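Input record (one chain):
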Amino acid sequence: MYKNTIIIYGSSLGNTRFVAEKLQMLLPGAVLRDSVEVGPETISSFDRLILGTSTWGVGLLQDEYETFMEMLQEQDMEGKMVALFGLGDQQNYPDSFCDGMGKIYELLQNKGIKFIGAWPPDDYDFTTSKALIDEQLVGLALDEDNEPDLTDYRLKKWVEQIKTEL
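The corresponding structure, as predicted from the sequence alone:
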């Protein structure tokens, strides 16, 4: 059971919410919340956070996630464990694929967090991404626009990986 784990997502069109719901089913007991429902008291209640957002346009976070990240940066995150997942479009935005996930990592990397869930970029077709650091993606990258048939497989493999660390 993953009772001390919360999955927080930002979703405008529903794709990220859909993925977050699938993720919750793979992590029994994990709490699922839209980023607009999360305040400082929620963050302080959980030691393990799974954060997910889509990337809009050329590297932008989902609208409500911008506000959520401002609040999150003000919280004491020391010692928390964080896994990231991001949705992007390799075909139309190959120069900013899953940059939203990379932006979250960038904003939180100096907060005393232990990041888990780095993912290999091997099976993707993009040119650059802020989520690619030291030849690994900082979390699970998904492309619901061009590769929705790979989402379930990638989610299951990623959850197998992070379960050992959660």
